[in-house]
Each structure stands twice: as C-alpha cells, then as structure tokens.
Amino acid sequence: MKIGEIFVTLGQLSARDLERALKRQEQHGGKIGENLVAMGLVTPMQLTSALRLQREVETALPACERTLAKLESGFGPMHPNTAHARCNLARLLVLAGRPAEALPHGRAALAARHAHHGPRHAATAEAEKVVNQALEALRR
C-alpha cells in the first residue's frame, strides 16, 4: 500500500489532501512523504510511523492468514477466536489497500461477533468499524 493511502485509511489525511500533495509532487518532485511534511499535512513523526506500519503490514499479512486458517479448521468459522483473527486480517487487508478482500472477512467477523456477543459489545463494534473502513476504501 502506498504511504498516502495509509494516511487516508487511518483518517489522518483526506482524499483531497492527498490529491493536493500528489499535485505538489508532480510540480516539485521528491517523495510523497516529503511533500506531505512540506505542506504541513503530516509531521515527520507521523511519516516515520506510517512508513513503519507500511512494512509491518506486508510482513504481518501471511501470519494472519495462517492463524485464521488454523483457528477456522480447529474451532470453526463462528468461534470467537476465529472471529478475532478474521477481524485482524480484514483490518490489515484494508491497510494494505485490498479492501475488496477485506470486506468479506470483516462481514464474517461481524456476523460471528454479533451472534456470540450481541450488538452492543465492543468486539462487535470493532468488527463493524472494520467493515465500514473497507466500504469507505472501496468508495475511494
């Protein structure tokens, strides 16, 4: 996932801000992160954190996929531990810029958490947030 998309996904930048930074990059050159900092849209610390997250997401995805497969085969698709792993995978897929893949995982996690915990539980709200993030990313 591109660094600008990470900022938008995390809600630290609007899509419009990213477009402005990309136009500035075309005019002045440099990396998008440098332009975001120069425009005052993110701090150097935020840029460093986002770059670290970018690397971590790519590393963590295969581990999350393996964990989900193990839990699903061991406990089944509706078990709370499986739903937790599925929600984590969906969140990472959104951050990786793959919301179309994240959405079914998020919806499955939401259904399992709703069935197990009910509609007002924090775990259910967390899964609902991931589904909404995936839908928002698909609209962009």
Describe the structure.
- This protein is an all-alpha fold and 140 residues long.
- It has one domain: Tetratricopeptide repeat domain (Serine Threonine Protein Phosphatase 5, Tetratricopeptide repeat, Alpha Horseshoe), CATH 1.25.40.10.
- It has seven helices and no strands.
- Helix 5 packs parallel to helix 7 (122-139).
- The two termini are 14 Å apart.
- The mean pLDDT is 93.
Characteristics of this structure?
140 residues; mainly alpha; Serine Threonine Protein Phosphatase 5, Tetratricopeptide repeat; elongated
Oligomer: single chain
Number of helices in the DSSP assignment:
7
Number of strands: 0
Give the SSE order as H and E letters: HHHHHHH
* Cα end-to-end separation: 14 Å
Rg calc: 17 Å
Compute the average pLDDT: 93
How many structurally independent domains? Answer: 1
Helix vs. strand class: mainly alpha
Largest sheet: none
Mind telling me the CATH superfamily name? Tetratricopeptide repeat domain
CATH topology description: Serine Threonine Protein Phosphatase 5, Tetratricopeptide repeat
